[in-house]
Protein backbone atom coordinates (compact mmCIF):
# COMPACT_ATOMS: atom_id res chain seq x y z
CA UNK A 1 0.00 0.00 0.00
CA UNK A 2 1.24 3.46 -0.91
CA UNK A 3 1.76 5.72 2.12
CA UNK A 4 1.93 9.50 2.22
CA UNK A 5 4.45 9.13 5.04
CA UNK A 6 7.09 7.91 2.57
CA UNK A 7 7.17 11.42 1.04
CA UNK A 8 7.73 13.24 4.34
CA UNK A 9 11.27 14.26 5.23
CA UNK A 10 10.38 15.17 8.82
CA UNK A 11 7.51 16.19 11.05
CA UNK A 12 7.77 19.88 11.88
CA UNK A 13 4.67 20.33 14.07
CA UNK A 14 3.07 17.20 15.45
CA UNK A 15 -0.67 16.74 15.90
CA UNK A 16 -0.10 17.35 19.61
CA UNK A 17 1.94 20.55 18.98
CA UNK A 18 -0.87 21.82 16.76
CA UNK A 19 -3.62 20.90 19.20
CA UNK A 20 -1.85 22.73 22.02
CA UNK A 21 -1.16 25.86 19.96
CA UNK A 22 -4.66 25.97 18.46
CA UNK A 23 -6.09 25.90 21.97
CA UNK A 24 -3.99 28.95 22.86
CA UNK A 25 -5.01 30.78 19.69
CA UNK A 26 -8.67 30.02 20.36
CA UNK A 27 -8.43 31.43 23.87
CA UNK A 28 -6.71 34.58 22.60
CA UNK A 29 -9.29 35.13 19.84
CA UNK A 30 -12.18 34.50 22.22
CA UNK A 31 -10.93 37.35 24.37
CA UNK A 32 -10.55 39.64 21.34
CA UNK A 33 -14.17 39.00 20.33
CA UNK A 34 -15.65 38.97 23.82
CA UNK A 35 -18.15 41.71 22.96
CA UNK A 36 -18.63 41.08 19.24
CA UNK A 37 -19.90 38.31 17.01
CA UNK A 38 -17.14 37.81 14.46
CA UNK A 39 -17.57 36.43 10.99
CA UNK A 40 -14.85 33.82 10.75
CA UNK A 41 -13.79 33.43 7.13
CA UNK A 42 -11.85 30.37 6.08
CA UNK A 43 -9.79 30.44 2.93
CA UNK A 44 -10.36 27.08 1.29
CA UNK A 45 -9.08 24.56 0.95
CA UNK A 46 -5.95 24.91 3.05
CA UNK A 47 -7.55 26.45 6.14
CA UNK A 48 -10.29 23.86 6.52
CA UNK A 49 -8.72 21.74 9.25
CA UNK A 50 -7.36 24.78 11.09
CA UNK A 51 -10.71 26.59 11.06
CA UNK A 52 -12.58 23.51 12.22
CA UNK A 53 -10.25 22.99 15.18
CA UNK A 54 -9.79 26.69 15.98
CA UNK A 55 -13.48 27.56 16.17
CA UNK A 56 -14.04 24.59 18.49
CA UNK A 57 -11.61 26.30 20.86
CA UNK A 58 -13.70 29.51 20.72
CA UNK A 59 -16.75 29.07 22.95
CA UNK A 60 -18.30 32.38 21.89
CA UNK A 61 -21.05 33.26 19.40
CA UNK A 62 -19.55 33.45 15.93
CA UNK A 63 -20.50 32.86 12.31
CA UNK A 64 -18.53 30.99 9.68
CA UNK A 65 -18.14 31.64 5.98
CA UNK A 66 -15.67 30.49 3.34
CA UNK A 67 -13.92 31.85 0.30
CA UNK A 68 -12.24 29.89 -2.42
CA UNK A 69 -9.45 31.69 -4.16
CA UNK A 70 -7.02 30.49 -6.70
CA UNK A 71 -3.66 32.05 -7.16
CA UNK A 72 -2.16 31.85 -10.61
CA UNK A 73 1.26 30.33 -10.62
CA UNK A 74 2.93 26.97 -10.22
CA UNK A 75 1.84 24.57 -7.50
CA UNK A 76 4.64 25.64 -5.15
CA UNK A 77 4.88 29.36 -5.92
CA UNK A 78 2.12 31.96 -6.00
CA UNK A 79 1.99 34.83 -8.48
CA UNK A 80 -0.03 37.46 -6.62
CA UNK A 81 -2.87 37.43 -9.10
CA UNK A 82 -5.81 35.98 -7.28
CA UNK A 83 -9.10 34.83 -8.68
CA UNK A 84 -12.14 34.51 -6.41
CA UNK A 85 -13.77 31.19 -7.24
CA UNK A 86 -16.29 31.40 -4.39
CA UNK A 87 -17.10 34.67 -2.70
CA UNK A 88 -18.57 35.18 0.75
CA UNK A 89 -22.24 34.36 1.22
CA UNK A 90 -22.78 37.45 3.37
CA UNK A 91 -22.23 41.17 3.24
CA UNK A 92 -19.41 42.10 5.60
CA UNK A 93 -20.06 45.81 5.90
CA UNK A 94 -20.09 46.75 9.57
CA UNK A 95 -18.98 43.24 10.57
CA UNK A 96 -15.94 42.10 12.50
CA UNK A 97 -14.17 39.79 10.09
CA UNK A 98 -11.50 37.26 11.02
CA UNK A 99 -9.64 35.77 8.07
CA UNK A 100 -8.29 32.29 8.74
CA UNK A 101 -5.36 31.16 6.61
CA UNK A 102 -3.22 28.05 6.58
CA UNK A 103 0.06 29.69 5.64
CA UNK A 104 1.40 33.08 4.61
CA UNK A 105 4.41 32.87 2.36
CA UNK A 106 5.10 35.82 0.04
CA UNK A 107 1.91 37.45 1.34
CA UNK A 108 0.73 38.13 -2.21
CA UNK A 109 -2.47 36.09 -1.93
CA UNK A 110 -3.63 37.64 1.31
CA UNK A 111 -2.54 41.18 0.42
CA UNK A 112 -4.78 41.00 -2.63
CA UNK A 113 -7.67 39.49 -0.68
CA UNK A 114 -7.42 41.95 2.21
CA UNK A 115 -7.50 44.87 -0.24
CA UNK A 116 -10.69 43.52 -1.84
CA UNK A 117 -12.40 42.85 1.50
CA UNK A 118 -11.36 46.18 3.02
CA UNK A 119 -13.29 47.97 0.26
CA UNK A 120 -16.47 46.33 1.54
CA UNK A 121 -16.20 48.33 4.77
CA UNK A 122 -15.96 45.72 7.50
CA UNK A 123 -15.86 47.16 11.00
CA UNK A 124 -12.60 45.30 11.56
CA UNK A 125 -10.53 42.87 9.53
CA UNK A 126 -8.03 40.65 11.26
CA UNK A 127 -5.87 37.77 10.10
CA UNK A 128 -4.96 34.60 11.92
CA UNK A 129 -2.66 32.14 10.20
CA UNK A 130 -1.49 28.77 11.43
CA UNK A 131 1.89 29.17 9.77
CA UNK A 132 3.93 32.18 8.77
CA UNK A 133 7.09 32.30 6.66
CA UNK A 134 8.09 35.94 7.21
CA UNK A 135 11.48 35.42 5.58
CA UNK A 136 9.76 35.03 2.21
CA UNK A 137 7.49 38.06 2.36
CA UNK A 138 7.34 40.13 -0.84
CA UNK A 139 4.64 42.59 0.22
CA UNK A 140 3.77 44.34 3.43
CA UNK A 141 1.43 42.02 5.28
CA UNK A 142 1.55 41.33 8.99
CA UNK A 143 -0.93 38.81 10.40
CA UNK A 144 -2.56 39.69 13.72
CA UNK A 145 -1.99 36.23 15.15
CA UNK A 146 0.38 33.43 14.12
CA UNK A 147 0.42 29.80 15.18
CA UNK A 148 3.99 28.97 14.24
CA UNK A 149 6.75 30.89 12.50
CA UNK A 150 7.91 28.35 9.94
CA UNK A 151 11.20 27.81 8.13
CA UNK A 152 11.46 28.22 4.37
CA UNK A 153 10.61 24.65 3.45
CA UNK A 154 7.70 23.29 1.46
CA UNK A 155 5.20 22.14 4.06
CA UNK A 156 2.28 19.75 3.78
CA UNK A 157 -0.37 18.30 6.05
CA UNK A 158 -3.13 19.63 8.31
CA UNK A 159 -4.76 21.21 5.26
CA UNK A 160 -1.62 22.09 3.31
CA UNK A 161 -1.28 20.29 0.03
CA UNK A 162 1.10 19.52 -2.73
CA UNK A 163 -0.87 18.93 -5.94
CA UNK A 164 -4.01 18.45 -3.80
CA UNK A 165 -2.50 15.62 -1.78
CA UNK A 166 -1.19 15.36 1.80
CA UNK A 167 -3.91 17.65 3.27
CA UNK A 168 -5.18 14.79 5.41
CA UNK A 169 -1.95 14.24 7.32
CA UNK A 170 -2.63 15.09 10.99
CA UNK A 171 0.71 16.92 11.36
CA UNK A 172 2.63 19.56 9.40
CA UNK A 173 5.68 18.04 7.77
CA UNK A 174 8.43 18.95 5.37
CA UNK A 175 7.89 17.39 1.96
CA UNK A 176 10.84 15.52 0.50
CA UNK A 177 12.21 17.68 -2.29
CA UNK A 178 12.30 14.74 -4.71
CA UNK A 179 8.49 14.85 -4.74
CA UNK A 180 8.34 18.31 -6.31
CA UNK A 181 11.89 18.74 -7.67
CA UNK A 182 10.79 18.17 -11.28
CA UNK A 183 8.14 20.90 -10.98
CA UNK A 184 10.30 23.79 -9.84
P1 LIG B 1 1.52 33.55 -0.66
O1 LIG B 1 2.90 33.40 -1.26
O2 LIG B 1 0.58 34.22 -1.60
O3 LIG B 1 1.09 32.05 -0.54
O4 LIG B 1 1.56 34.14 0.71
C1 LIG B 1 -0.05 31.69 0.07
C2 LIG B 1 -0.48 30.36 -0.48
O5 LIG B 1 0.62 29.64 -1.08
C3 LIG B 1 0.56 28.31 -0.74
N1 LIG B 1 1.78 27.92 0.00
C4 LIG B 1 2.03 26.72 0.46
N2 LIG B 1 1.30 25.61 0.42
N3 LIG B 1 2.98 24.47 1.58
C5 LIG B 1 1.79 24.48 0.98
O6 LIG B 1 1.12 23.46 0.94
C6 LIG B 1 3.79 25.55 1.68
O7 LIG B 1 4.88 25.48 2.24
C7 LIG B 1 3.28 26.74 1.07
N4 LIG B 1 3.77 27.99 0.96
C8 LIG B 1 2.81 28.68 0.31
C9 LIG B 1 -0.67 28.15 0.11
O8 LIG B 1 -1.75 27.74 -0.70
C10 LIG B 1 -0.97 29.52 0.63
O9 LIG B 1 -2.33 29.78 0.89
MG1 LIG C 1 -4.05 28.55 0.98
Automatic annotation (TrEMBL):
<dbReference type="InterPro" id="IPR050408">
    <property type="entry name" value="HGPRT"/>
</dbReference>
<comment type="pathway">
    <text>Purine metabolism; GMP biosynthesis via salvage pathway; GMP from guanine: step 1/1.</text>
</comment>
<keyword id="KW-0479">Metal-binding</keyword>
<keyword id="KW-0808">Transferase</keyword>
<keyword id="KW-0660">Purine salvage</keyword>
<dbReference type="GO" id="GO:0006178">
    <property type="term" value="P:guanine salvage"/>
</dbReference>
<dbReference type="InterPro" id="IPR005904">
    <property type="entry name" value="Hxn_phspho_trans"/>
</dbReference>
<dbReference type="InterPro" id="IPR029057">
    <property type="entry name" value="PRTase-like"/>
</dbReference>
<keyword id="KW-0460">Magnesium</keyword>
<dbReference type="InterPro" id="IPR000836">
    <property type="entry name" value="PRTase_dom"/>
</dbReference>
<comment type="similarity">
    <text>Belongs to the purine/pyrimidine phosphoribosyltransferase family.</text>
</comment>
<dbReference type="GO" id="GO:0046100">
    <property type="term" value="P:hypoxanthine metabolic process"/>
</dbReference>
<dbReference type="GO" id="GO:0000166">
    <property type="term" value="F:nucleotide binding"/>
</dbReference>
<comment type="pathway">
    <text>Purine metabolism; IMP biosynthesis via salvage pathway; IMP from hypoxanthine: step 1/1.</text>
</comment>
<dbReference type="GO" id="GO:0006166">
    <property type="term" value="P:purine ribonucleoside salvage"/>
</dbReference>
<keyword id="KW-0328">Glycosyltransferase</keyword>
<comment type="function">
    <text>Purine salvage pathway enzyme that catalyzes the transfer of the ribosyl-5-phosphate group from 5-phospho-alpha-D-ribose 1-diphosphate (PRPP) to the N9 position of the 6-oxopurines hypoxanthine and guanine to form the corresponding ribonucleotides IMP (inosine 5'-monophosphate) and GMP (guanosine 5'-monophosphate), with the release of PPi.</text>
</comment>
<feature type="domain" description="Phosphoribosyltransferase">
    <location>
        <begin position="15"/>
        <end position="162"/>
    </location>
</feature>
<dbReference type="GO" id="GO:0032263">
    <property type="term" value="P:GMP salvage"/>
</dbReference>
<keyword id="KW-0547">Nucleotide-binding</keyword>
<dbReference type="GO" id="GO:0000287">
    <property type="term" value="F:magnesium ion binding"/>
</dbReference>
<dbReference type="GO" id="GO:0032264">
    <property type="term" value="P:IMP salvage"/>
</dbReference>
<dbReference type="GO" id="GO:0052657">
    <property type="term" value="F:guanine phosphoribosyltransferase activity"/>
</dbReference>
<protein>
    <recommendedName>
        <fullName>Hypoxanthine phosphoribosyltransferase</fullName>
        <ecNumber>2.4.2.8</ecNumber>
    </recommendedName>
</protein>
<dbReference type="Pfam" id="PF00156">
    <property type="entry name" value="Pribosyltran"/>
</dbReference>
<keyword id="KW-0963">Cytoplasm</keyword>
<dbReference type="GO" id="GO:0005829">
    <property type="term" value="C:cytosol"/>
</dbReference>
<dbReference type="GO" id="GO:0004422">
    <property type="term" value="F:hypoxanthine phosphoribosyltransferase activity"/>
</dbReference>
Amino acid sequence: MESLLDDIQSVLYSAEDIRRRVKELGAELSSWYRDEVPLVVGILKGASYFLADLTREMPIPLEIDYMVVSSYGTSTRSSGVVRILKDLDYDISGRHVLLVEDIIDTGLTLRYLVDILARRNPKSLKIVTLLDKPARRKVDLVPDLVGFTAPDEFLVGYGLDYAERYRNLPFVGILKSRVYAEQR
